[in-house]
Amino acid sequence: MSIQGIGNMAKTATKNAAARVASAKCMITTLALLMFLTVATAVPVYAAGLPAFIGEAVDMLRILVFAIGGGLALWGIINLLEGYGNDNPGAKSQGIKQLMAGGGIALLGTIVPQLMTLFS
Length: 120
Hints:
The chain has helices at about 5-40, 50-85, 90-115. With about 120 residues, the protein is mainly alpha-helical.
């Protein structure tokens, strides 16, 4: 096998990896949209009273913020792995930033509703 043949194999493997990453990003975006639509349609249109409505709204927002944070963290993991696979420092940096931001948003979605109980 010649050096040119090895180079062609490496180019093909890189193209295949890029296609898999693009496919994974598309699937994550679709799943995030489906989760958003599921949460948005699960909220009842009618309210028995204002406190019950506010409680349900807080629950819905908690789930939505947690889902967005989890999706961002998952997207960050994919970018991080893509950066390591292609030896791209920019993608690694972006991936770790997205991972940390997604984790922070997901944490925020779990802590804020618990903080509301401190004042009641």
